[in-house]
Design a protein that fits this description.
Elements (H helix, E strand, L loop, with lengths): L1 H13 L6 H10 L13 H25 L2 E4 L6 E4 L2 H8 L1 H4 L1 H7 L2 H4 L3 H15 L3 H10 L10 H15 L7 H22 L2
Helix pairs in contact: 1-3, 9-11, 10-11
Length: 200
């Protein structure tokens, strides 16, 4: 594992702007690093194991860098890079388990050995399900008469569509109060969904 930590530091020092997890894995495979020789990124279990070993080594590297007090390491699947140490990261190095539950997860190798193919597939399926809009959101979009995917509508188009519906169904213009209430509830749900997605 120490050799992997050194290799990661070398790769990250060579690429000052950082690398994604995928780019790092591809480099380790192309260099035929012993821990990644049999890595098959198209197999979910092999991908999980490669991911886990990589992140285990990245957290070890970050601990080493912080202990030396010279650099820090940003760790994210989309962007992994060396960066200057900050007061916050210096404080975190003094109590890492309390401030970083991901660190604790990846440094515990029991999590690697305890995760089998079925567990990985369940994790993937639950993650994919959380990306799908709920039935309530689908019903809200239907109530508003929106057939296109929500992510293709910009806020102004959505507001304009909503105003037209309110104008058409307002009781003062011969519309139905219950229908207007359903439109307002549907719009509230769509707005809440948009806010929750923008915070992720």
């Amino acid at each position: 594992m120490n050799q992997l930590v050194k290799t990661l530091q070398r790769l990250l020092e060579a690429k000052h702007t950082g690398l994604s997890e995928y780019e790092l894995l591809k480099q380790l495979i192309s260099e035929q690093h012993p821990l990644f020789i049999s890595a098959n990124l198209s197999d979910v279990l092999s991908l999980f194991r490669s991911h886990f070993v990589l992140f285990h080594a990245l957290y070890l590297l970050r601990d080493n860098l912080r202990s030396a007090g010279q650099l820090d390491l940003k760790i994210s699947p989309l962007h992994i890079c060396l960066q200057p140490i900050t007061t916050r990261s210096s404080t975190q190095s003094q109590m890492p388990n309390l401030s970083d539950p991901l660190r604790a997860y990846y440094l515990d190798l029991d999590n690697l050995s305890a995760t089998d193919r079925e567990a990985v597939e369940q994790l993937l399926n639950s993650s994919l399900a959380s990306l799908q809009p709920s039935q309530q959101l689908s019903d809200a979009l239907a109530e508003l008469g929106i057939e296109q995917p929500l992510h293709t509508l910009n806020s102004e188009d959505l507001r304009s569509h909503y105003r037209k519906l309110v104008s058409r169904h307002h009781p003062d213009r011969g519309g139905c109060t219950e229908r207007l209430q359903r439109i307002n509830q549907a719009m509230d749900m769509v707005r809440a969904y948009q806010v929750s997605r923008s915070c992720k």
